[in-house]
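Lab notebook page, bench 4
Experiment: in silico fold of construct C2
Operator: M.H.
Input chain length: 373 residues
Purpose: comparison with the prior construct
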Amino acid sequence: MEKLDDIFPKSESIDYLHHSLEKRLGSQQSYDETNLVLQLGSNDPHRLKTCVEHAVQMYSFREINLNCGCPAIESGGAATYGASLMKYPELTKSLVDSVKRGLESVSASDRPKVSVKCRIGVFDNAEQMRSLGAEDFDKLHRYITYVFEAGASHVVLHARPAVLTGLSPVRNRIVPSLDYEFVQNIAIEFEGKIDITLNGGISSLTQIKSLQSDESSVISSYMSGRLRRPLDLVDVEVLLTDQSVPPTENTNTIKSALENYIDYALTMATLPSRRFTTSELCLPLYLAVEQLKDDWDYYEEDNQSAYQPSLSYDDIEFLLDVVRRGVIELEECSNKGNKKVQKSNVYKYLSSSFKSLAGKKVVGKWKRNRAEL
């Protein structure tokens, strides 16, 4: 999500906006086909329209999304911004209309969709938090009606209410109870009018498959916003196309992706002018290792749960060794060589190495963030 005040402050010119977009998205380029979605946070209809007008002239987007679900801006709540907009349906309608008018310069065939991401409800503070009822459903129904009338064709619903003050953004993703049935009932009400995507609490493709198996559901799609298991991305295309891919092909694809990323990280780490810190370069590898460890534990503990890893035990060991070799090279170029290279447990070695390369506090933060759903 890009806050409009960050990429296009009131005091700055259009040139500042162009520079901000290029800094975040790279040089201007056109795509015959794109899945890029630009999510914006704003409460200023006029500047939002101007921003969208220029953004779509520079880049091809599949969708322009208005963030009405972020529970806190910086610390504490923020009036008429993020999830607070759910208290102001008429202002939200005006913002959605501004996005739609900002797209008028694009031909109808290439025009991005307009969407809104919001919560299923909103409370001013933690003391007000309770189970949602019929009155809350009516409020959400009215809110989505407003954004639909303004031109939105898609709503991403985080299946938790937002608490604007007294609960941090992290706790807002954990404490309020999930209510998938609430989202399902809203989707039924708007079937044929607007697509509803369910978001919140989805941490794996196994869970998505389970949700999709409900033939009575009218949910259009599912969103996993917390990327705990990045290697699952290799299975996304298989899930979308319903194709069958041999397990060895998946393993080779993951091996190639890891090796390509390690080469990239080593190149970035040795540039005279560093674009990324060592910890930033290590984070994707850390997430991959934690996923492999999750699946490794499944076999080690003889787990009988419904979830089953797509990788075999041998594949997991093989891929962990690929990462281990890459991390050793990162340690060498960072002058932080780990003396425990010979440690038999590769996961313990990698865990120690990440703490050495990124710092114990940083790795601790990664671990906490990964636990969020």
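Observations: The mean pLDDT is 88. The chain has 14 helices and nine strands.
Next step: discuss at group meeting.
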